Amino acid sequence: MIKFVNVSKAYPNGAVALENVNLEIEKGEFVTVVGPSGAGKTTLNKLIIAEEEPTEGTVLFENQDIDAFNSGQVTRLRRRIGMVFQDFRLLSNKTAYENIAFAMEASGKSDEEIVSDVPHVLQLVDLQDRMFHFPGQLSGGEKQRLAIARAIINQPEVLIADEPTGNLDGKNTMEVIEILKKINDLGTTVILTTHDQQMIKAVGQRIISMERGRVVGDEQKAQVKL
Ligand code: ADP
Predict the structure, then answer these.
(1) End-to-end CA distance of the chain
(2) What is the distance in A from the centroid of ligand 1 to the CA of 38?
(3) What is the pLDDT of residues 144-154, one digit of tens each?
(4) CB neighbour class for 158 (10 Å; exposed up to 12, middle 13-18, buried from 19)
(5) Which of 11, 26, 68, 221 is in Cβ range 3.0-4.6 Å of 15 for a Cys bridge?
(6) Nearest CA to ligand 1 atom 7
(7) Following CA atoms 217, 159, 198, 225 in sequence, which dihedral angle do they give, to the nearest 10 degrees?
(8) CB 6 within 8 A of CB 56
(9) Cα 146 to ligand 1 centre (Å)
(10) Which pLDDT belongs to residue 202?
C-alpha cells in the first residue's frame, strides 16, 4: 500500500533526515516506528502525506509515485489518510461534537450523516459522556481520543499517529494504544511513531527501528494479548 524505494531526504539547510530508506507497509498492518528524536520519523510521515518530497528515491501509495501527484491527487491522497499529532490540534472554541462535525462538514458530509455518525465515533473512543465538553475541559488522554475520533470520522484507509502519547502518562498512553488497536482491528492501516522504547512492549505486530535517518531494524513481534 505504501512503499519507500531508496528514499533519502535532505532539508534545504543540509539536515539529512532520511538516508536510503526502503520499506513496504501493507494494507491492514499496525506498524510502530520507534527511534530517538531526530531519527526521521516525522519526515517519514510527511513524505507519505506529500507535505515534503524526497531528495532521492520514490514514495509510492498504491503503486503510484506521490511526488508526481498534482494538487487534486494530493487532496485525494490526504482524504485517505487520517493524522493525529502529539499536540492534539483540536479547535478550542468548539465542543467535542463540533470538532468532529467540523471535519465532516469540511469534507462535504450532510447534516444527517453528521448527526448519526458523530455519537458513534465518540462511543468508539469512549467519549460518549464528553460530547458537549470543550477541549479545555478534557484530560490529555481524552483530548487525544477526541483527536483520533476526528481523524477517523471520514473513514481513512490509513491512520498516522505521530507521537500521539508524547504528552500522556502511562495509563492514558495505554488507553490510546488500545483504541489504535481497535481501529486497526476494524481494518484501518495504522502507522504509529514514538521515541519511547517502552511502548514497544504495549504495541503488537511490526516494529521498525530508526536511527539517524536509517532503518536499523524491522521485525514482526508475536501478538501478545494484554
Ligand atoms: P523525528 O520525528 O524522529 O524526531 P524528524 O523527521 O523531525 O525526526 O527530523 C529528522 C532530522 O531532520 C533532524 O535532524 C531534524 O533537525 C531535521 N529536520 C526536520 N524537519 C526539518 C525542517 N523543516 N528543516 C530542516 N531540518 C529539519
Answers:
(1) 28
(2) 6
(3) 999 999 999 99
(4) buried
(5) 11
(6) 42
(7) -100
(8) yes
(9) 27
(10) 82
